[in-house]
Amino acid sequence: MTVPAPATGLRMPAATRWTLWGLLLALVAALLVTLVWLAGRYEASQVQSQLERDIAVAASDIRAGLARNAQTLQALQVTSHGNQERWQSEAGSVLRERREILRIEWRDPDLRLLVMSESPYRPPVFSRIGRPEIQADVQLACAQAQRQGGAAYSPSYYLPQLDGLGLEVKDLCLPQMTAGRLTGHLVATYALQEILAAMVGPALTRSQEVSFNEPDGTRLALHGMAQRGLRTFTAQQLLDLPGNAVLLRMDSWRAAPDLFPNVLTALVTAMSITLVAVLALLVKDMRRRLRVEQDLADALAFRKAMEDSLVTGLRARDLQGRITYVNPAFCAMVGFSPEELLGHPLPAPYWPPELTSEYQKRQDVRLAGQHLPPREGQESVFMRKDGSRFPVLIIEAPLINAHGAQTGWMSAFLDMSEQRRIEELSRASQDRLQATARLATVGEMASLLSHELNQPLAAIASYATGSLNLLRGGAADGIETALQRIAQQAERAGKVIKSVHDFVRRRDQAREAVAPQALLDAVMPLVNLQARKLGVAVVTRVPAGLLPVVCDRTMVEQVLLNLARNAMQAMQEARVARPSLTLQARRIGPDEHGGKAWLEFAVIDVGPGIPPDVQQQLFTPFFTTKAEGMGLGLSLCRTVVEQHGGFLSFEPNTPQGTIFRFTLPAQPADLPTLDSP
Ligand code: ADP
Known about the structure:
alpha+beta; Beta-Lactamase; Helix Hairpins; five-stranded antiparallel beta sheet; rod-shaped; disordered N terminus; binds adenosine-5'-diphosphate
């Protein structure tokens, strides 16, 4: 077998396959989720680091702004030359420029207030709570400033205002030294919120919030209005001011719960969706393939079952004559295994050695594609592996592939041995039937025979009695004649017996060429036997120089005898006044197309003819109209004639009676002729 059985080894169990697919899908999904998450995180970290950069910028802006302010305030003392009026006007102009400064005080070394100036932008900030109440913060900052010999800031504190709101403020203390001696203090009160508003660039606060916070998280001041969203990004930086530190914090919100926060994430997501779609398509395709594979496996199994159940041998050959396929029936027929046959070149192992050259020639013709093999097949002899020969019927057809090109030959084989055996059997039983029929005929003839033998025997007896009388009387001269008569009569009796014996004896079945006259001569003694008894006139008409016929003569004689006997019996039954029987032979053909030559025998009587209802069943075995008839005669006759390739028919005779005709093939030129029985 070249077609493999569906290879279970190559096919994965469905459960395993689905598990693998599931695993693949899970992996892809996990990968995609991770990618999206990573992209999101990357985007978040971008935002975060931007925020870190922003807060660093903001912190340094604030530091720079505060340092610049400290310088401006320091300069105030110098430019006023100790003149309080002048100081106050200078301070007023500083306050107009610097919104974040709410109030500037000039104090003596013991922190007593000498002069002060208030911001023109808001009501005096200490009007709700008096300045002295929060003197402690100022003292603290100034003590620190003295220690450091530079500016120092107080911790921030809350300052309630007249309008009900409040401010978080911080004091800056600048010690003033003249020739290394402390001559006073300059105290400036900062509004924290205004610091943020004035010193942090507007670009930074447009979309984010900047705030000052205590280290514990308490919010002190806030600037900028970020649009609130779900995702908050926060950066903090410690603003380490001399004397006090404050936490600068920046908050930024991302607007939506961003599924596609940026192009990268969107790209990854789009790719993921495409990937999933491709996977889905692949799965679909896979399922289709699986279905097709299943169908194919079914078709293969069906084909295999069909091939295995066939009793016809099948064999395919390529154009070089190598065997490409054999089915189990073929292997069983020839006794070789598929492995021994497949790929085997010519000559095939099942060719009998004595026929190899003939088969090889046939194959050469076939493979050259010169003419197609006969459709009805052709008979051949093959050899089994054990060396025994057997007849096969081969039916061949060209193998055409899907592109319409011939790729080899497909042949079907029928083992004919069994059929031959059955044919043999049926021939044997046919023969036995013939013999039985012949014996039956003889049985019928026994009475005729006794009647016929009676005459010679009676003659012999009377001659013998006469001879005895002559002997007793002493006359010797008549005895010789009497003995001659006895011998003649005995010979006649012997002939009668021999004619029956010849007929009954089985002879070889070989076909031989026999002259028509010889066939008639062989049956005439028996025909005459009956004819004499029934008073039938027998005529034979055989033209000289007829071609001999090829036949099994015993059988054909039986046919002639049967037909003659039927004819005489019919005439006897109908009590025909002048019964007569004609046996004749004539040649027909060959026709103008060069067909075979035939001889036609006819048995003609003048009996009653055959009524139509009898005609219908004439050749049916065991059909008879006679009380002691067997009804086998005509059916056997037809079988015999047809076995010879001839044809048996009947027709009415004019004016009355029946003509039975049958044909036999004339001898081809090369067979020897037998003229005598
Ligand atoms: P059987 O002679 O044993 O009856 P046959 O098969 O020879 O069997 O004949 C079948 C029947 O055909 C006969 O019984 C007879 O009725 C009819 N038949 C045969 N030959 C003739 C004939 N020459 N004329 C009339 N009838 C015939």
